[in-house]
Design goal:
Blueprint lengths: L3 H4 L4 E6 L4 H4 L5 E7 L3 H11 L3 E3 L4 E2 L6 H19 L3 E3 L1 E3 L7 H4 L8 E3 L4 H11 L5 E6 L2 E6 L6 E5 L2 H10 L3 E2 L5 H9 L3 E4 L2 E4 L2 E2 L11
Parallel strand pairs: 3-5, 4-6, 6-7, 8-14
Antiparallel strand pairs: 1-2, 1-3, 8-9, 9-10, 11-13, 12-13
Length: 224
Amino acid sequence: MDSALDTTAATLRVAAWRDYDEAACALPGMFLGELDLTGPVAQESDRLWELGARRVILPAAVDLTAAGDLDGARRTVRALSLVRDLTARAVLVEWDLRLDPARPDDWLTLSHLQPPRTLHGAPDPLATLTTWRNGHYLGKCLWRNGPGFLQIRDRRWGNLQRFTADEPHYRSAVEELSYGAPSRSVPKDALEDFTEEKLVLHLGPLAWWVPYRVSRWIQEPMAI
């Protein structure tokens, strides 16, 4: 992974609380404050968890239309990575999403993430957001590294699709894509296969890995 993609993008400012419930969040000592996230997203999501954050608000909308140049793509990838990593921990993430009207179905690619508060750019934003909320559950699209293999389990389209790869360059491609990578730097066959299965999202010059990672199954593997 090109670490510069993760560390030199714009600072992410969030507000965080120790509980999911709004009433509980209003109690003394529950608000963790407004935090500026300046480090790599993987480290910052760990830090939020260790601080006790269970509800996080991103004040700035994640704008897929702003990813035309490298700086914009970095900012977008950085925000999406935080939403993804916090979703994987079952943190309540409150965020807003602006789709590119030329690619209104990108919400389906992102439908394993915590549903946003507001959605713009879809033909019928309210109906789309309702569908997203009603169909969301933890573990909808995830991946893990096993001993000598990579496995993805994907239910975004309704049925279980399972992919297993043991080629070393596929595994290294996922590591590179996890927090955004220039499309040209990723092995062509891996990127094409991941793109076909909608496991990467192309944002300007960058490609970004969509599934979130688990270190252990949250249910019995056969259930997932």
